[in-house]
Amino acid sequence: MKNTTVNSMKFLRLRRRLGLPHWQTVGLLESIWVFATINAQDGGIGRHSNEDIAAAIEWSGDADKLINDLLETGWLDCHPEARLILHDWEQHCPNFIRAVLARQNKPFLSKVEPSIVTGK
Fold it and tell me: What is the CA radius of gyration of the chain?
């Protein structure tokens, strides 16, 4: 995690919404990213259910609320195929993920503007 992340309004909003101290919010985000490096290398974390994501990171609270809070604070984005993707994963993922996807000739999933998704 970049040093500047923990001072961002996005981080502070998530921390407040979840009612977590600083260190637990850092751990939660890092746990999601570790889960993605194994289970959603292209960023498509929403191929897994909210319950599975919560279980993988040992979140004991409401899984739907967690995902909703991550969406509303900008850590996740909606995606028409994968349901949810990690926000800007291609830019922030570990370098080895870029290499793995390049070797497999697979693209990262990227945010689709709502007008494109809905056709409006």
Answer: 14
Here the tokens at position 78 are 């909606």
- Cα gap 51→62, rounded to integer Å: 8
pLDDT tens figures, 26-82: 999 999 999 999 999 999 999 999 999 999 999 999 999 999 999 999 999 999 999
- The neighbouring-strand residues paired with 84 are 78
Task: Using the Cα atoms of residue 37, residue 42, residue 43 and residue 49 in order, give the sign of their dihedral.
Answer: negative
φ, ψ at 86 (rounded to 5°): -70, 130
Token pair, residue 67, equals 């995902």
CB 50 within 8 A of CB 84: no
Place of tokens 């909703």: 68
In terms of C-beta density within 10 A (0-12 exposed, 13-18 middle, 19 or more buried), how is residue 9 classed?
Answer: exposed
Q: How far apart are CA 58 and CA 31, in angstroms?
A: 9
